[in-house]
Specification:
This protein is mostly helical. It has a domain of about 110 residues: Up-down Bundle (Four Helix Bundle (Hemerythrin (Met), subunit A)), CATH 1.20.120.10. It has six helices and no strands. The radius of gyration is 25 Å and the shape is elongated. The structure holds protoporphyrin IX containing FE.
Length: about 180
């Protein structure tokens, strides 16, 4: 009696394992991509587009969307950065700003992609990257100041970031 119960328990366990395995390995059929269309999140050369935050590392973030995310986070930060009760919210916002910055840095704005002369394009791409590296560094300083409760220093850092934005936009002809 006891061994029969043991046997049926073992059979039940084996059946469950098989079911779980077959569900885990089943792959939905991939929809086929129309001929000539780039994979999702990629654009033909020169017009990068994509979803920021893609996991594969192969996706090219959309510069404009990433910049807008960075801008939104900074505007919100500016309004609440001095308030100690809002420290956690500010730390979340600075994370959003950093994500936008890193995604923007990984993309190529059309102001660079559209340059025909290869040497001039490489120079513009390098300048774009340098500006965004400086922005990323400043964002980390602002994060540290928020974390240490230095509201005035954090606010000053945000003002500097907005000046960096304006200088970068002037250089690249963004209104
Ligand atoms: C805190 C820093 C920055 C913020 C908050 C910011 C914000 C923005 C925003 C809101 C846009 C969209 C503009 C629109 O809709 O017309 C934008 C676009 C753009 N920004 Fe920035 N930006 C920053 C830094 C920079 C820097 C340093 C550069 C240059 C090195 C730069 C280059 C560009 C370019 C090229 C575009 C146009 C992208 C496109 O249309 O594809 N930005 N930025």
């Amino acid at each position: 009696m006891r061994s029969a119960r043991l046997f049926s328990f073992a059979a039940l366990a084996a059946g469950t394992t098989l079911t779980v395995l077959s569900v885990a390995t089943a792959q939905p059929e991939r929809p086929s991509r129309p001929e000539g269309r780039p994979p999702e999140g990629r654009q033909p050369e020169g017009r990068p587009e994509g979803r920021p935050g893609g996991r594969s590392g192969a996706e090219v973030p959309n510069v404009e969307a990433s910049m807008k995310g960075l801008n939104r986070a900074l505007q919100q930060l500016r309004d609440q950065v001095g308030d100690p009760a809002k420290k956690d919210a500010c730390l979340k916002l600075i994370g959003d700003a950093q994500r936008g910055c890193i995604n923007a840095k990984a993309g190529t704005p059309h102001q660079v992609a559209d340059i025909k002369d290869e040497a001039a394009k490489a120079k513009a791409a390098e300048s774009y990257r340098k500006h965004l590296i400086a922005v990323a560094r400043k964002l980390l300083d602002v994060e540290q100041n928020i974390m240490e409760g230095k509201g005035d220093a954090a606010r000053a850092g945000i003002s500097e970031l907005l000046k960096m934005r304006d200088a970068g936009h002037e250089e690249f002809g963004v209104d």
